[in-house]
Amino acid sequence: MAKNGKRILIALGGNAIKQANEKGTAEEQFKNVSITAEHIVRLITKMGKEDRLIITHGNGPQSGNLALQQDLAKDQIPPQPLDVVGAMTQGQIGYMFQNTLENMLEAIGHKVPVISVVNQVLVDKNDPEFIGENASKPVGNFLSEEEAMKMKAEKGWIVKKVKPNAPKPWRRVVPSPDPIANVEADAIKILVNAGAVVIASGGGGIPVYKENGKLIGVEAVIDKDLAGERLAEVVEADVFLILTDVEKAKLNYGKPNETPIDRMTVAEAKKYLNEGHFLAGSMGPKVKACIRFIEWGGKEAVITSLDKAVEALEGKTGTHIVSA
Ligand code: ADP
Ligand code: MG
């Protein structure tokens, strides 16, 4: 692959599109996206001609809302399965970023093509997450015991009690299989090499498995940071930048002796991960993704908050994961 400049892959967290306290109106989401896009444009304008930016993002709140909306209208319009919901939200969020980034780049006269890709990610049908009731990713709204049992009986959902003392303690859980490969890798490489800012693997990608040579969509949710790391491999990223809502990952998170981490080697990151410093489902997969990226051959992985993106790339803040 013809690669001259530096390649940065950024993985945007949920707060980049919807704040926890918001309902998720289009106006609210466009407002958040434009705050995010300002940081991205700041980054783009600092990049050289041969440098490339690749973006991935989560879709948790959007797919949750869409699933709920479908459920409320299910007597009139059939709800779509999770893989299709994934594709729908990739389109929705991709549009919001394309529109906003294009407008901002146009306003400053900076010509860069921006494109989002509907993107499948290959998983293994024998991943432990697909076995029995192993599934670990809660999706959709909270359910009463009665509602949960009804969905289990009618649709074969796996339901788990995720908030024991709440009035509605149950939720549907779906498998969160490990991403193996990005299906549209070749197309994405072509776009990146040609100079486009590519938005891909949104929401962790649409999970598909291969059977008799065919790709088949599956009801599952891939972690966006782990899928983002696979995308970083595809585009041969130099830097994998995870932008979330905390400036640094911490040791002893939430305890009186909590300590922010400036820099950790892969060996240290593995040790801390095993000691339980990074919670499963939030910081855990981020650190795991960073470890994978460096072990694959990436130069540097950084975890920081959205507003610190540029400073973190300059080495002034964030948690940096390096080989040694
Ligand atoms: P995103 O939408 O960006 O993926 P997450 O909520 O999944 O965001 O992950 C970020 C969150 O991880 C933080 O807000 C924090 O609550 C949580 N977290 C868990 N462990 C740690 C840790 N060791 N250090 C910092 N934050 C942590
Ligand atoms: Mg997350």
Any key phrases for this structure?
single chain; 324 residues; alpha/beta; four-stranded mixed β-sheet; 22% strand; binds adenosine-5'-diphosphate; binds magnesium ion
Please provide a written account of the structure.
The chain is α/β, with parallel strands linked by helices. Among the domains are: 18-32 and 53-120 and 183-207, no CATH class; 237-247 and 280-324, no CATH class. Helix content is 37%, strand content 22%. It has helices at 26-46, 60-72, 82-107, 145-155, 185-193, 224-234, 266-274, 283-296, 309-313; strands spanning 7-12, 52-57, 114-116, 120-122, 137-143, 158-161, 170-174, 181-182, 197-199, 206-211, 214-217, 239-244, 250-251, 259-260, 263-265, 300-305, 319-322. The strands form four sheets. It has an eight-stranded mixed beta sheet with strand order 3-9-2-1-12-16-17-15, sandwiched between helices. It has a four-stranded mixed beta sheet with strand order 8-4-10-11. Strands 5-7-6 form a three-stranded antiparallel beta sheet. A hairpin with a 7-residue loop joins strand 13 (250-251) and strand 14. The chain is globular and about 55 Å long. The model has no long low-confidence stretch (mean pLDDT 95). The chain binds adenosine-5'-diphosphate and magnesium ion. The site of adenosine-5'-diphosphate (ADP) has 14 residues, from loops. Belongs to the carbamate kinase family.
